[in-house]
Amino acid sequence: MSDCSLADTIAANLLAVRSRIGRAALAARRDPASVRLVAVSKTFGLEHVQAAAAAGQRDFGENRVQEALPKVEATARLGLHWHLIGHLQSNKARKSIGPFSLIQSVDSLDLLRRLEAAAAERDTQIDILVQVDLAGESTKHGLAPADLEPLLDEGASCRGVRLRGLMLLPPYFDDPERTRPFFRRLRVLRDELVGKGRAPDTLHELSMGMSHDFEVAIAEGATMVRVGTAIFGTRG
Ligand SMILES: *Cc1c(COP(=O)(O)O)cnc(C)c1O
Description:
By secondary structure, this protein is of the alpha/beta class. Helices cover 41% and strands 17% of the residues. An 8-stranded parallel beta sheet has the order 7-6-5-4-3-2-1-8. Strand 4, helix 5 and strand 5 form a beta-alpha-beta unit.
């Protein structure tokens, strides 16, 4: 594929995804602007990121710090926002503070504390989401709902770490309707936490929904959708 057709393809895919987001939001009587599109560029190269950026995309998601860093550095002048959406090892917490504007995958008190210490050290702040595991999948990262409150308590008293909401990576089903109950449960969980008196702005974001199910996630209240394949194509 020549660069020109790559750029055209990505621009067209982005347009299609944005229009699907808009339709899903309107169908749910939501403002389309209340759903942020995070373009997941993991395994894809710099030219893919640059093509998406040229088509107006601002938010990008990566799974791994090491893979993200060269892309973050090479696009520094473009003013992009980078989201870390994969598991973050505690010993990489310090490295993640500068490059990422949102760490979506905080799943332990240890990691929260390391991020807080790293932010203090750099005299900066870092926005985070807490990754929740609603299915009890031992193979995946994420906190069980029962373990959520101690982390939220501590997060609320952090100065460098700013809690923004919850992230969900549900079990995979071909049929997105089967994922709907998980999306709904994340929203209900959030609403219950706010109902118990937690500050709404610390739980505003619900990051859920991927290429094959983001419309359902939006119907259930997603404020961020993480879309890779539908924008960049199938990963090798
Ligand atoms: C890869 C990935 C995505 C994007 O998945 P697609 O099906 O390609 O849209 C979203 N979220 C996480 C956590 C991922 O690892």
